[in-house]
Structure formats: C-alpha cells, structure tokens
Amino acid sequence: MSSDETTTPTPSDDAPQFVLPLVVRIERTEPPARTDALETAARAVLTLLSDDRSLGEGEWAQAVRDWQDARIRKVVRRARGAEWRRAEALPGITVTGKSAEVRVFPPVPLDGWPKDLARLQVSGTDLDDPEPPADPDAATPVLWLSPDLDMSAGKAMAQAGHGAQLAWWELSGEDRTAWIEAGFPLAVRTAAPDRWERLVTSGLPLVRDAGFTEIAPGSCTVVADHPALRLDRR
Known about the structure:
With 234 residues, the chain is of the alpha+beta class. The protein has 8 helices and 9 strands. It has helices spanning 34-50, 61-69, 81-88, 115-118, 153-170, 173-181, 193-199, 227-232; strands at 18-25, 73-79, 93-96, 101-104, 108-109, 142-145, 187-190, 206-208, 220-225. Helix 1 runs parallel beside helix 5. The protein is globular and about 45 Å long. The two termini are 16 Å apart.
C-alpha cells in the first residue's frame, strides 16, 4: 500500500483539501533530539487517529473523514514560549517523547488555519541527534526513512506521520488495539541502502511524496515496517 500523497491525479483531488497540523516545541536553549521529534510526531498522528473524538460521531470525526477522503497532507510548524502556549490553548493533543513535545490538531481546510497556528514558521525546523540512535528491537515497529533523501526535521516528521498512518490503516482491529494498549511503541531510523532496496519492494506500506516541498514528486520517503504486517506477508 502506498500513500495517496502522489502527483498522479486521483478522485481525491476533486474533494476539498484538508491538512493535519502538527506543532513541535523548539525552545532556543533546549531543542529536542531529531529522532525523538520524528518518533513523537508519528505517535501524535496515531494518537489522534485512535482518539474517541476522531471516531464515529466524535467532535473531530467529520474533519478527519474529510481529510482522509482527500490527499493526506500534514504540515509541521515550530513554536516556542508564548507561541507554544497559544498553540496548547487550541483543541488538540500534546504527545511527549523523551525530549520532544508535539501537539497535533484536528484537520483544517488547506486555506483555513487557525490564526495562532498560521503565524507559526514552517521553515528552519532543523534538529540534531546528540548521539546515534540505538538499533531498534525486532518487535518494535520501525518507520524506515530513505537513505537517498535529505529532509529537514519538519519534513521528516510529516513523512514519519504518513508512514505511521499507512501502517495503522493496514492493521487489523486486534493489532490496532494491541498497539494502542502498548502506548504506540515505534522507532524512526534511516535505512541502509541495501535494506532500503529490499523494503521498497517488500509490499509493506510505502510513502510516495507529492513533491509540494523540499523533494521531487513521487520520491519514496518512508516504509512502515510493523511486525504484524511482516507476519501477514510470510
């Protein structure tokens, strides 16, 4: 399964376009580690998708359905200080990692961002890892990033969120429940070139970017390697 965030025209292009806003807290003195920010963004997307307000007749459910009926767009912006406090006052969910805080909001029309989110910066979301992340456990779902692309932290956060969402769509109800109850454990890592070649042809969920920002249209950015999906393919 591939993301529908591609350049190929689809029926979803005719639907009103929505975007899922994510805001990462980046204070000058204590910025989060890059990998932790990526992982926290992916968990934030999963947390919103599984929240009661996004399901059935929940208050966010129609917006989530409208967003998923169109292209699956996510935009990551950054905030600090008073900006972050204003963002936290808006309806949404804050997910905390080891060093990162990411707030995810219900989808909004592409040109209808709340004022306090619209004024936040998109560019300049550059983060580093103080030390290389450890190899993930074999039982941990991994969102593998392409080794061939140079993405800002904000772009990579959005792509990790896409990958998590594609995995979520493919999981059975039982596997979704297990993931929720475990607290959405996951890892984001850059694949070695030989692993990446195998991953993109594995049949696991694959994100192809639409090319709106930073990278070429159709670029393969993320493969979602969830153990439950690997078992389905043995």
